[in-house]
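Escalated from tier 1: 6-O-phosphono-beta-D-glucopyranose holo job.
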Amino acid sequence: MAAEAGTIARPLTTSSVAAANPLRAGLASSRISDPCNVVFFGASGDLVKRMLIPAMYNLRLGDVLPTNFGIIGFARSANSNDEFRAQMKEAVDTYSRSGEARDPLWTDFANRISYVSGDFDDREAFTRLRAALEENDQKLGTQGNRLFYLSTPPSVFGKIVAQLAVVGLGPKDQATGWSRIVIEKPFGTDLESARALQSEVGKVFEEKRIYRIDHYLGKEPVQDIMALRFANVIFEPIWNRRYVDCIQITAAETVGVEGRGGYYDSAGALRDMIQNHVINLLALVAMEPPISPNADHIRDEKFKVLSALRPISVDHVPKMTARGQYGPGLIEGKPVPGYREESSVAPDSTTETYASVKFFIDNWRWADVPFYLRSGKRLARKTSEIAVMFRGIPHRIFGESGDQIETNTLVMKIQPEEGVSLRFNAKVPGPKMHIRAVTMDFNYGTGFGVVSAPAYERLISDAMRGDATLFTRWDAVEAAWEAVTPIMQRWSESRVVDFPNYLAGSQGPQSADALLIADGREWRRI
Ligand code: BG6
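Tier 2 regenerated the structure:
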């Protein structure tokens, strides 16, 4: 069936693209998976409504789904198929980037959605799930291919996987087709629980069938980090300790905990953001060139660099890290409550809503270059970026005495702006040799004339196609937990007395500034 004309990017013919935008000429069009069923566990949850179903719908709208596909929601709440479809329509109407669901596409899409209600350890419910999958194979031609997507709290990941095996939905029981499992973050709550989870999941699904999501890896500008580094010759010679003074990686948010206080209060910024999204950015910017774009070649390099992270001993945690918690303040001019006043948060909570860490990488390329990582909620601005800050010039020959000659900075802007900027020094026009720093900016939107698709669209379609490149392999997850374990340990042992220690809407706690000031540096302004 032909897709309706949508407002989102659709596969276009090479010639029509070339006419519209020469930069996109010759690009391959849609990459479509085998026929398959996608089962969303935790189907009544927020992620399914806000992200996953709108992503599926937009993939359909963009003609990226196979003709034969089915979607099955599985959750505890009692719903009929029709009730679940109505909820999913509301989700698309509210959250889809292409606007409200439209007919005839929606009706066809909705007819492929069904629902199974049950507990995650209810064998009978899993038997019904199996029957629903087999029925879809007959009715929708999905050929026995299954993508199981665990969008549930991590505490039930193990139960779900075990039940899949019990009712014969494990890959080993399959006569035809493939099975893959997508696991949302967090993968464990610490090193030990992550290892236990890995061992449970690993009993049923081999590593090549496990797709661990880190949605940052699905963001276009994050994927562009590798293009910038490995499709250009000019950066590689200076991408090392001889030219780089330090690297600052920031994931700053203006939002608070958004109704997720219950989860967040037991997690905190280190587990929620640094252990996964921010450390994955570090791996991409610091890894060696992979020998090919093959998923495992890239993931081998990421693992190698993460295994070279210098362990931070528990005793050194205070001088290598800073943590904070927001108090009341102003975000975009409006008053917001402090973290301890958020719902489902303990009024004396010592959970950090801001974390910064200084890492070193013990290898030839990066020895003695600090990687400063930070992430926090309720900060001055939403911004995620990687800034490569270069060393100063060795000898100054010009510039008036009052001129500031800045060091060069290359910034990979992940969000909300998407692009790359380079800061360098230039002569101010005029008779004198005045020097000022200027910025050269590349922006994806204006450069390529497209709006990037949300990360979940890319990740779901990659998992359906069996491309694991943008998913985290177990060895990297384990290395990331190893890197943060001493910090978690020290932070849980030492009492915090100064929380809340930053105002909502500010740059974060002073202790984070002190971390860099001690090294004679400062953070880029958020
Ligand atoms: C999630 C965290 O993984 O990432 C959230 O659990 C956080 O706490 C979110 O808000 C940030 O994602 P993004 O894409 O908005 O930067």
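Residues 40 and 149 are 5 Å apart (CA to CA).
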